[in-house]
Design a protein that fits this description.
The chain has 288 residues and is α/β, with parallel strands linked by helices. It has helices at residues 10-32, 47-63, 78-90, 109-113, 127-134, 143-154, 174-183, 193-197, 201-205, 250-254, 267-286; strands at 6-7, 37-43, 66-72, 96-99, 163-167, 187-191, 210-213, 231-234, 238-240, 243-245, 259-260. The structure holds NADPH dihydro-nicotinamide-adenine-dinucleotide phosphate (NDP).
């Protein structure tokens, strides 16, 4: 009989990190008489963004962090939106800022992202923080790559010298994750659309001791491609027939892997907690 992979339970991992942050925040409160205050800046009322903001709020409250959602109308001008970010940067009572996507077409996301103060940049989107991450000089690291690293660490398997293959090379997941894995001395391959077009995705996936998939295509990776004993982290979120599924075909992958994240309930819950961890790091930086 085949052995099944161990499930990497995101809710359980998130709870352990939440407990640690709750303790840190309580200690800050008794020592400094204040707690981190985070502001989520959102334009319009995209339903996915609102649901994500609600879960951020719930997690912040559980930890004892103050959380505010600042909602701006779709018609806000680039100039007014820039000013809103600048005002939040100047406000000493705001410790962290997150900028919710999507933004309307007339708002230049990257220009505004670079206005988020580097000490308040909860998602690590300012180019200065991206540069610092490359040099290993910051604790404020994009949340999803951090969540993936937490899942890998939770297996207890050493990353050093392992073949890590990332499928998906976006600026918020694949690329920053490649830097974090190199820092831990994995040998890293990053696959993207051209890898698939060249017909070489299966070959790369099959070499992975640690496989991370962040594409957004339901069941792109069948279990038969996966190296026996691999650690599989599925970042993808896809809605199929009213159900949420990942980028990896879970049932067949579970028969090959040693550890695997479910979707939902894997990377997602840890990502939200990583945002709070960045808030706590930002608060420490501003109060050190
Ligand atoms: P993007 O669309 O920004 O990036 C997708 C990447 O996958 C690109 O590098 C793209 O290459 C590559 N790609 C597309 N098709 C293929 C293919 N057939 N073979 C190989 N590579 C391919 O997506 P995101 O990084 O923002 O998100 C990826 C997924 O992760 C989504 O499902 C998203 O919902 C989910 N997600 C989950 C989070 C969580 O916390 N659980 C957080 C963030 C995202 P190219 O650009 O060259 O086309």
């Amino acid at each position: 009989m085949k052995t099944m992979a161990k499930l990497l339970d995101g809710k359980q991992l998130a709870q352990a990190i939440k407990d640690d942050l709750t303790q840190q925040v309580a200690e800050m409160k008794s020592r400094l008489n204040k707690v981190p205050r985070l502001v989520n800046v959102m334009i319009g009322h995209d339903s996915g963004s609102c649901a994500y903001a609600n879960s951020q709020k719930r997690v912040a409250e559980q930890i004892g962090i103050e959380y505010e959602l600042k909602n701006f109308p779709e018609t806000i001008s680039q100039q007014d939106f820039r000013q809103a970010i600048i005002d939040l940067n100047k406000d000493p009572d705001v410790n962290g800022i997150m900028l919710h996507k999507p933004v309307p077409k007339h708002i230049d996301y990257h220009t505004v992202a670079n206005l988020v103060g580097i000490e308040k940049d909860l998602e690590g989107i300012n180019v200065a923080n991206i540069g610092k991450m490359l040099l290993g000089e910051t604790n404020i690291i994009p949340c999803t790559p951090q969540a993936v690293m937490e899942h890998i660490r939770s297996t207890g398997v050493s990353i050093r010298g392992k073949e890590a293959v990332i499928v998906g090379a976006s600026g918020i997941v694949g690329k920053p994750l490649s830097i974090l894995l190199v820092e831990q001395l994995a040998t890293v391959t990053v696959c993207h659309i051209a890898t698939s077009e060249a017909g070489r995705l299966q070959e790369h996936v099959g070499r992975a001791d640690i496989l991370i998939v962040a594409v957004g295509k339901a069941r792109l990776i069948p279990g038969s491609w996966i190296k026996p004993g691999a650690i599989v982290i599925d970042v993808g979120i896809n809605r199929v027939d009213g159900k949420i599924v990942g980028d990896v075909d879970f049932d067949s992958a579970q028969e090959q892997a040693s550890f695997i994240t479910p979707v939902p309930g894997g990377v997602g819950p840890v990502t939200v907690v990583m945002l709070m961890k960045n808030g706590v790091e930002a608060f420490k930086l501003q109060n050190s």
